[in-house]
Amino acid sequence: MTDTLERLSRYRDLVDDWPAFIDSCRKPLPTVVWANPLRQSALLSLGVPGAADPSAGSDRPTGSDLLPATSILAARLEALGYSSRSVDWYPGALRVFGIDKPGKTLEFYLGLYHVQEEISLVPALLLAARPGERVLDLCAAPGGKTAQIACHMENTGTLVANDIRPNRLRALRSNCERLGLLNVAVSSHDGTRFPLEVGQFDRVLLDVPCSCEGNVRQSGKIPFEQAGGVKGRAGLQATLLGRAWKLLSPGGVLVYATCTFAPEENELVLDYVLGEDATIEPVEIEGLRASAGVTEWNGSGLRSDCRNVARFWPHLNDTGGFAAARIRKQGDAR
Amino acid sequence: MSENFIRLDGQPYIEWWGERFGLSTETFTGLCFYQRGRSTVWVGVPDVDDLTGARVEAVGIPLLRLGARFWKPTSIAIITFASAAAHNVIDLDDHETRRFLAGSESCLEETDPRRGKLTTGFVVARLDGVAIGCGEWHHGTLYSCIPKGKRVVSIDF
Questions:
Q1: Which residues of B touch A111 (CB under 8 A)?
Q2: Closest by Cβ to B130, choosing from A110, A178, A197
Q3: ipTM of the complex
Q4: What does pTM read for this prediction?
């Protein structure tokens, strides 16, 4: 752990409160789940254990006199012995306390909720996909963000969830099925060569493979420390971004995200790849603290809109570490 | 290159779900039907013709396995579409649900009124009005068709 924290010391000048950051990196991560709106009627039908008998037949209860679905989920988890608190900034998400195996409940099996690290809920929110759109999630596995996007699209339109790694594809497909995502098509291309003939998309999520420094709270170390460090994946990230940009319609939105602190994997990649037809837009999520992106690193200046990259240091919101940028492509939307 | 998935006319499958479980045709409104390989019918929103060039591995969810002698609904399709089933549906209690999700069978007494809604073949297993998977009803016994990898031996609820 000490070695890991020493390695992170290169970010000392970027962090507002270094002792709080280090403290936060030593703590385990809270477990977060979100209620699946596509299975809301099932949750309403199951109801709160011990409460008045929910309809035992095919008639579904109707809304007004019932708790909202998320409250029912919280009550059901409570009945299993797990207290929870809602995540203020993300509708339907709960922090659940003391739950060791959130994948071993009836509710999970039925796809009533998904388990996802809290801060990784951000990119889909920034992407803000709408019903009926054509959307691409280029590095999609294991599918948590795909599922969020599918829900934002209200199970309509076309969401292509792509990943190349076979074992990760299995997890992606399994999650899509369990959560009842009908608007997802799963594909298995190398993201750097995703065929252009498939056409352009209204929105593209690019959650690139990275050194995962932001996951330090999950394991107490940086998972991919040995694989070339923060520069090892920069080439791949840049190539993926170049491809994703070609796949984005004029006027469309691309969200670039990593779970790492390194400017080499965030702002430097954006600065290297993006041209004049791109604008990194300012983003704000109510109830979630972020710090500004880096516009200078190791003496080199970067494009000025890199300041709009949102950096989520673990101590700001008691989450993992993350960085995300919402990028608009010049032109009229279709 | 989406030739993996061949577009089907959904009518026979919609009718099958209607006849077997009493589900209305509206259950499948707006969905496309596909066949992949010899035996699996998939159902989903995307039109793969709109994805020419993509190597598609899945569209929506698997709906049915087509056998020579019978068609078998998938558990995930039952969970997704069949909570409102009117026949060939069995409402389980907590104990039976645990057995069902663990892959075990349950015998129903001769006098159990639930037998009246069941005919031999695949049925919807349901808990508190929510479909929880595909079962097979045969000679007074409900067999669980939950795939081995999805079974839950010790489940919280």
A1: 79
A2: A110
A3: 0.95
A4: 0.94
